[in-house]
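Structural prep section.
Before we set up the soaks we want a predicted structure of the protein with zinc ion in place, mainly to decide which crystallisation condition to try first. Input record follows.
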Amino acid sequence: MNVNQSAPPVPPFGQPQPVYPGYHQSSYGGQPGSTAPPTPYGAYNGPVPGYQQTPPPGVSRAPPSSEAPPASTAQAPCGQAAYGQFGQGDVQNGPSSTVQMQRFPGSQPFGSVPLAPVVSQPAVLQPYGPPPTSAQVTAQLAGMQISGAVAPTLPPVGLGYGPPTSLGSASGSSPNSGLYGSYPQGQAPPLSQAQGHLGAQPPQRSAPPQASSFTSPASGGPRMPSMTGPLLPGQSFGGPSVSQPNHVSSPPPQTLPPGTQMTGPPGPPPPMHSSQQPGYQLQQNGSFGPARGPQPNYGSPYPGAPTFGSQPGPPQPLPPKRLDPDAIPSPIQVIEDDRNNRGSEPFVTGVRGQVPPLVTTNFLVKDQGNASPRYIRCTSYNIPCTSDMAKQAQVPLAAVIKPLARLPPEEASPYVVDHGESGPLRCNRCKAYMCPFMQFVEGGRRFQCCFCSCINDVPPQYFQHLDHTGKRVDAYDRPELSLGSYEFLATVDYCKNNKFPSPPAFIFMIDVSYNAIRSGLVRLLCEELKSLLDFLPREGGAEESAIRVGFVTYNKVLHFYNVKSSLAQPQMMVVSDVADMFVPLLDGFLVNVSESRAVITSLLDQIPEMFADTRETETVFAPVIQAGMEALKAAECAGKLFLFHTSLPIAEAPGKLKNRDDRKLINTDKEKTLFQPQTGAYQTLAKECVAQGCCVDLFLFPNQYVDVATLSVVPQLTGGSVYKYACFQVENDQERFLSDLRRDVQKLVGFDAVMRVRTSTGIRAVDFFGAFYMSNTTDVELAGLDGDKTVTVEFKHDDRLNEESGALLQCALLYTSCAGQRRLRIHNLALNCCTQLADLYRNCETDTLINYMAKFAYRGVLNSPVKTVRDTLITQCAQILACYRKNCASPSSAGQLILPECMKLLPVYLNCVLKSDVLQPGAEVTTDDRAYVRQLVTSMDVAETNVFFYPRLLPLTKSPIESATEPPAVRASEERLSNGDIYLLENGLNLFLWVGASVQQGVVQSLFSVSSFSQITSGLSVLPVLDNPLSKKVRGLIDSLRAQRSRYMKLIVVKQEDKLEMLFKHFLVEDKSLSGGASYVDFLCHMHKEIRQLLS
Ligand SMILES: [Zn+2]
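Run finished without errors. Recording the tokens verbatim:
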């Protein structure tokens, strides 16, 4: 029953094993363990040749304590493994700066700095620009706070090293495409891009020649690849810029006369301005892109920015000073670089502590002993050895785990291992499951647990000889000895009541009150179910699903239906005593679809007619869930309830709710109550559901406040999903609803699940985030778990960790499959441990960090004022960056903002979280919307939070129509919009098509089949199907974006300057928001101030 249960003695391995067609690995189980030749394993019989060299198989699979590479060098055995991690910055800096220099005559003044020295200064950033400059920068940046005071600045003295932006302008392409479209030409960050041109071989792969020079902690800074370039004008071109691309130096202080200490060309000092958001292009010239000419983003609107080429010296008319947006770290650039550098080769999991490619990069995974990043992503892959170090850094140690993640077709599902009646082999003390890190000793007769060090006997049936390296000779024949992820068939000991489970059931529970009937929902749903029931989830090629189905309709009372196959017509039983819910029938309620098809079809035909004239507007809610749960209990099975609900349940019944929406509570200490359930009844109910393995998926169709915070309690605690379709109308919303419904009903689900995360000595799991229930401090209970849901786990130290042995995680999920089979899915992951903070900062994953921080904050609003939550996030982020600055970066001016390469996007992403609807709602955001989003984010994986908080903005007409690939994205800012172009914006939930007012008539005709911009219908949600290349391309792209997301994104066409544009602009997250959220530039300044305060 419990994951933690001790295993019975192990029987002979290799009993006849059921064939699992879906896993293409039937030969696996029947294989006698001891003498088996490697063959049955096929591709898994040892490391794949192609990847053998990095690292050698022995290394990758051996117990960490004996053979794993030392933490600090694990990634660098060869260039391949290490790329992206070390040294590239140094390697690339030189050349890239060279390129830039050549491209930007405008930045001539820098020419005076000898290029060669720059290139040759690898690790040490020393010669910085003139010291005074740095100091000035400090003062200046401090003066640029979000507070609105803007310091005067030197004009375009030029960035230290040409920022990507300047290159863009040089490329001469149109303003917007220039941002990234021209990227290959060297628009961007010096390093990776410059080399990207060189050819197929990304620079990073070419080995980190200088990695060795970075062994000291203090050199952490220099190791960072250069990227974003200096952010501020006025910075000297000296070493730092080249080797420490992440330095953001502030402009010269006001107190100094412009140009005084600058190495760059002096320019007229911009006047001081009080405007916080100076310089939007739009405000300057009233038009988008085209007006900007070749230098769309710099130039007059940004007087403070360096002038590049086209905007040389003439004193500017005193525009406000601001950071050059193109000089601060760009999410787009980071994403593009990672795609270019890491998208072409599989990610092989054999090496401990490897940071995987970003979630935005397409890559294949080869399991060689650690779980795929599709299953587990960590905030850092190199964790501090001591809790003191961890506290100093303040970097949360967390893993985002998606135990049942779907894999691309090219990757095999986890193998299923059957150890027969003995069940899986486990450590006697800590109950960890056999895994590749267990170390066999005494000739193979015993094994030492890699989690608790306990020495265990190897059962005779499992015995195998060891080779000269101490590895079992059958290691590659057994998934549990060679792979990061695999499954065990569970024995009856792992089952409720010591009884193998029955197949699960689905119960469809349909609101038939007035609103549901009037909107057309009931008719639409019943019609859809007739065909959808043929697609219930099934496993491994089974001919039909094992899942049984049942039907309930309700308003103030409940109607159960007997759909037994022997009936000519369905029978209805009404239960009006909702206070004491019971199930009026057992036989005939849950049925097999194919057996009862005729009766079911008849029922679904009749339901819309039966209630067509209903006047009933009141509904109940808790009794409906209670009924479904009782029905599963009576049938002794787990299952899922699909609830289709329209209104606040105000009818007299348990769980009755009142309208308590009150926007006046926003920004008060009572705001948290808006996120809390208004009654504890639903938590009690959820607990009962979890005990029964009853997962609840809720589809809401509200016309007004329905109290999502309360209604979503049961779905949240049972591992279910909530979907919300406000003001549902069949014409407008059916595609979205039906698409979500089909996906939700068809997806594979694990039922009645328990998840336990074990760790090696020194750290332990202390906190959990996600959609689940916990009745103790270690077991995550999930009535249901599907392939979209993640559980985020935070770890804390309870002892000192060892650099040599590293740290291990093992996630064990016990669940019942859709076919009713009880299984254990195991994921293992080995991490490095470090005694130098620089190693921590070099191996962080910012996307995962943001995922964790968002979940932490979104839970925090349940208990604390929203402002407190925001301040906590800002403080933590400042502490993280200040610790890096203090301990890892090379000495440099205090006025420079220096960001770790792996975290250079932390400020921009954190700002997006801070200004999200939950933490800083705009006037148009409803209380239900906030509760809904809060609930959604809790279960999101890293890819979902990434695009949710920083939406993807794609220009549509800049790339050739023939191009099959997705156009390169641009930054989410109004500045990036050209009024002559069309853009798609998506964040995983919303999808906009923005049309510029000056788009060519031909484009308008091709896409919308109307002759002018003015004739386009604002708010349109479907593009006409037209037979021309542009229309096909755009519609194809929309389909492709939708296919990437777990929920259907409804399209909204937005015209420039139209009312709807305000909605769209809400997603331009680099800009200041209407609700008061800071712009990226302002937030970066603010963050710098916070860091400086911590350091002083
Ligand atoms: Zn153990």
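Observations: The longest strand covers residues 822-834.
Flagged for discussion at group meeting.
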